[in-house]
Amino acid sequence: MNEYDSDRMAKLLEKTYGLKLVETPEEASVLILNTCSVREKAQEKVFGELGRWKEWKDAAPDRLVAVGGCVASQEGETIRKRAKIVDVIFGPQTLHRLPAMMEQALKERAEYDEQREVHKRVRRKAVIDISFPEIEKFDNLPAPESNGVSAFVSVMEGCSKYCTFCVVPYTRGEEFSRPFADCMAEIEALAAQGVREVNLLGQNVNAYQGVMPDGEIADLAVLIHAVAAVEGIDRIRFTTSHPMEMTQSLIDCYAEVPELVSHLHLPIQSGSDRILALMKRNHMAIEYKAIIRKIRKIRPELSLSGDFIIGFPGETCDDFKETLALVEELKYDRSFSFIYSQRPGTPAASLPDDVDLDKKKRRLNALQALLNDQTQAISDAMIGSTQRILVERLSRQNFNEMAGRTENNRVVNFDGSPDLIGQFVDVEITGAGVNSLKGILVATPEADRFKQRQYYAL
Ligand code: SAM
């Protein structure tokens, strides 16, 4: 979501002020830090980075520094207190106001310089707007432009689940869905620019409830069906989901919508019912397993990924073993696992953070070793299979090769020509590294269909 937001900021500043992205800070006149506060480590990095920018700012005082995202939303004024170089502080829901805020900051700086000549002790404040004006943001951002064959589309934001560990409802606000027609217009525009794959985004994307032009509400299943009908869009992903929002109609999409990939990112956080209750996830492990079983009945090849939190307050060795057992049973393919991080203002912050740090680290290592083994086993098992991949770009390792992604989101490098970019091709997998697969092109069904059409036209 932050990547998507950063992209929209860059486009917005290009449209309003003609600002262009540059390669190094030295070439820049504005630096923007788009932040995440989901864990303390990410938050602390913000202040480390701002400290490094001081020299850059001091070198030319007319340079601007802006801080956006969830740390900005959470800390507001405190950011300026800790980092005097910051001129603008905006939240995830006010990024569309960034050009006006930058202009205001420049104006205030000019006024400040004048006042300082008279009165030395005058203080300059940052321009701050971290409010939650919801839909206004989407209405005020420039139309999306594709950067390639695959695009993110933000369809909802925020979270109303209030898991006890999580800061998101307080920094991004409650769940808010974009109207159905707005999402569809964005996707149709992307398809017209050659996008073949969309990744529907939201903190709880499967809680999507978009108002339709007739006043009815579309859920994520309705949206997925509509997206699948858009000419040119042949692959649909959605991320990230909450288990409590995996409705039957969404599960049915795996049977009804071939464009929907056989991949699901469904965080569970812990395999222990006791910990799930303390986290206020509102479901038990068995219910989560039932969802996966239902989808695997429809798509036995489903590749599953998840998020796990290690060392939540009160997590015992037995609780952790239940997490390992769940992972053993369900077989995950690439996942995210984190040591619990106490977040200010969340209900869990009042619980004693009582699991010893060494224990947390040992548990995290054990879980990650298991998850990595499972991921590698899946990659190894793909060797010899034929995979349909969407060709995205030249390979980063060897410019004579092309790179594309499988349904389970693995990069495959293979010998091929750049004409294939934007096409679905079939590749036989010949090798599996840690980060990517190697393959041989075996069929180009779309290019063949195109040639056939030309032949009939003749
Ligand atoms: N829809 C997701 C869900 O079902 O929870 C929420 C995604 S959340 C923004 C991203 C991930 O960050 C969570 O799934 C969780 O594993 C991790 N996370 C959130 N708060 C955390 C905390 N306080 N400590 C450690 N990890 C945390």
From TrEMBL:
Cofactor(s) required, per the database record: [4Fe-4S] cluster
PROSITE patterns: MTTASE_N, MTTASE_RADICAL, RADICAL_SAM, TRAM
Cell location: Cytoplasm
GO CC terms: cytosol
Keyword 4Fe-4S: yes
Gene Ontology MF, one: metal ion binding
All residue ranges annotated as the MTTase N-terminal domain in the record: 1-107
Cross-referenced Pfam families: Radical_SAM, TRAM, UPF0004
Keyword Membrane assigned: no
Subunit structure, interactors included: Monomer.
NCBIfam families in alphabetical order: miaB-methiolase (TIGR01574), MiaB/RimO family radical SAM methylthiotransferase (TIGR00089)
Entries under HAMAP family matching the protein: tRNA_metthiotr_MiaB (MF_01864)
Name this polypeptide is given: tRNA-2-methylthio-N(6)-dimethylallyladenosine synthase
